[in-house]
Amino acid sequence: MGIFERYLMGVAAFTPLAEEEALELVAEHGLGGLVRVIPIAAGSVNSNFVLELEGGARCFVRLFEEQGEEGARYDAALLAHLAAAGVPSPRPHPRLDGAEVSFASGSGKPVALFPYVDGVHSCQRAVSPSRVTALGCALAKLHLAGKNFPVRRLGRFTLDDVRARFPRIARAHDPSLSSMAVQLEAELDAWIARRAPSLPEGVIHGDLFRDNVFFRSETGEGHDEVIALLDFESASDGRFAYDLAVTILAWCYGDELDLGLVRALVAGYETLRALDVEERAGLQAELAIAALRFTTTRITDYAMPRAGSDGGEGETTRVIKDWRRFWNRLRAVERLTFEL
Prior knowledge:
The protein is an alpha+beta fold. It has helices at about 5, 20-30, 70-85, 130-145, 160-165, 165-170, 175-180, 180-195, 240-250, 260-270, 275-305, 325-335, and strands at about 35-40, 45-55, 60-65, 100-105, 110-115, 200-205, 215, 225-230, 235-240.
């Protein structure tokens, strides 16, 4: 079962895309006749659609809800750059005038059209050493390809942004959430103090979870091949070791941290880009800071809105992600007694 069949399960679009708007987009990109517009239930930030075109072709449409024009242009330019460098990522369809970003006539929000990729996500049970080895290699390819990308950008979730969320958590109506503010701040301070002062940096994905990677198929030859890295809205400049840490936490933790998977992912990464001594020694702190980042944002953006608290911008979200999963990951990281 591919992405099309998996996600045509209810409407996940925050902003609708009318047929008239879709017709305009198709014409601007010279893609042929439109058959229908299908909202897809994927993603918790942007509105996503599949356009069925005459002749059986399809394309994927992303309507950027939060990034605005500058962010959408960064996203499109980065994906074009990475695809040209051989990174498995979908390159945006250029418009007939050469631009890579359009604007929905109804909402005025930026829109990008992408080739339709018929891949599959990996469930946790299907995560294997060979699969994460391929993933590690793809991540290293992204880091190397991004070195000469000319645009610099801070991430959406800097340490300052994470800290700014603690007072909001302290005001949560649910005491099980509000009590986390002090603990999170203390943990973050402690791990920042242990963080290496300087590690290699460049363009990072920042959010390489299982739903942001496509493999060729679930079974058969080539099923561990990464065919697309997706959803670059968190892409920015950052530490390569931090990006690797996010990926480890997303892929190598089921009920506990699987060190065999961790080593396989790192080994795949090092087939293209070897970690230096400082990165390897500093990876535990990057893992802990990544776990704290996702614990914090899942409280403010998912748990607090669900509990009727002041979740800020996350109030409109409809996807539920359990913050305790990353709090448990932090505990697992703290128990590591050797370099990975």
